[in-house]
Amino acid sequence: MGYKITVERAVQSRISEVDFNNLPFGTVFSDHMFIAEYANGKWSNCRIQPFGNISIHPALSALHYGQAIFEGIKAEKDADGNPIVFRPHKNAERFNISAERMAMPEVPEELFMSALDQLLTIDKDWIPNAPDSSLYIRPFMFAAEELVGIKPAEHFIFCVFTSPVGKYYNQPVKVYIHDKYVRAFPGGTGFAKCAGNYAATMMPVREIRKLGYDQILWLDGIHHRYLQEIGTMNIFVVIDGIIITPSLSEGTILNGITRDSIITLAQDEGYVLQERDISIEEVIDAYQDGKLEDMFGTGTAAVLSHIGEFNYKGEVYELPPVEGRDVSNKLRDRLTTIKSGKAEDMYNWLYHVPVDVYEAQMQ
Ligand SMILES: Cc1ncc(COP(=O)(O)O)c(C=O)c1O
Fold first, then answer.
1. Which of 255, 137, 141 has the alpha carbon at shortest distance from 195?
2. Which residue from 165, 239, 290, 362 puts its CA 20 to 30 A from 138's CA?
3. Buried b (16+ CB within 10 A) or exposed e, 216-253
């Protein structure tokens, strides 16, 4: 169908003010953002404009009732300095799965990809060069009804901005396994990337931070026994050479794109990989038998991050030194070299932004 996207360029780029060697996650924003509006059953008013505040009505429904979803994607540079994006079509698909659960309209893949294409073309110089750095892309949608009243909205805003980022974790992650609070339960919204899922975790996370932990490893909402996922990562456990990750079948965890990529690479490497329920008792038994070789999380922001220790019911369990964790180190290296275009893209995971086409169009 083709969406007309107007472009208003920033008068002056802010890029010279940025220290690309020091990029705390999510604090620096590129020059432009994309916005589209949904009304009367269609997306229109699609535009790229200078990054900046947007004015909102105090009764904006997303602020009151939380109809809001988002995605996280990373772009790096190819050898010619052009943007390569890791599996963005998967994010477009997941965005629409989240949208459906939250009674929000579909963002057609064509619109989603055009927004990325044009934004990355115009701000490609914001993609950092340093190893472990990338341009984080944040598409999001929120209900924009200007009305106090609980009903599915009919007006929405879809927006995309980008942010150059360095490493998410510099140390192995310390996780706290909560047996009190839960993140999701069957029939709920656990599989959706909706704002409320994260809001509900803030208070428990604040509590465990005071105890010196980084993240919560959530257990299932019914039995409080089975591993689910970490705040921004899916979880993998290696017991006696077998890689185990919770299955997606209950709809309580996010279908992580990094998770899917790691599963593919693990199978490609010939490892035994099981997607199944894994209880905290099974993990602790393996630890006590000396068979718990590794635990790690996977996510777009955190890539593959090792778990250094976990706490369950006040007991601290320390995992082996990171250097010796051959399985996860190998999988992380394979993933990062593919992502940065330095290894053969055998699964067709990289999307090359056609900058020449867009540069010509945006003249
Ligand atoms: C709750 C949650 N689980 C898992 C992930 C990892 O998903 P992905 O690999 O698609 O980034 C994320 C991050 O997006 C997340 O927020």
1. 141
2. 362
3. bbbbbbeeeebbbbbbbbbbbbbbeeebbbbebebbbb
Q: 300 and 178 in one domain?
A: yes
72 C-alpha to ligand 1 centroid (Å):
8
* H-run or E-run covering 207: helix 202-210
Split into its structural domains, the chain has a count of 2
pLDDT digits (tens, 9 = 90+) for 159-216: 999 999 998 888 999 999 998 999 999 999 999 999 999 999 999 999 999 999 999 9
CA of 248 to the centre of ligand 1 (A): 13
- The protein residue whose alpha carbon is closest to atom 6 in ligand 1 is 299
135 alpha carbon – ligand 1 mean position (Å): 17
Domain annotation covers residue 346: no
Digit-coded pLDDT (tens) for 32-86? 999 999 999 999 999 999 999 999 999 999 999 999 999 999 999 998 899 999 9
Retrieve residue 102's tokens. Answer: 């939250």
Same domain, 158 and 232: no
Tell whether 141 and 229 lie within a shared domain: no
**Pair (203, 326) in one structural domain:** yes
Specify the pLDDT at position 194: 98
With residues binned 3-state (H G I as helix, E B as strand, rest as coil), the percentages for the chain, rounded to 5, are: 25, 30, 45
On whether both 229 and 329 belong to a single domain, the answer is: yes
Judgement on whether residues 185 and 312 belong to the same structural domain of the protein: yes
Is 360 part of any domain? no
Structure tokens that stand for 204 in this block:
């428990």
First to last CA, the chain: 22
State the residue range of the domain holding 16.
6-167
Is pTM beyond 0.85? Reply is yes
120 located within any domain:
yes
Q: 154 or 179: which carries more pLDDT confidence?
A: 154
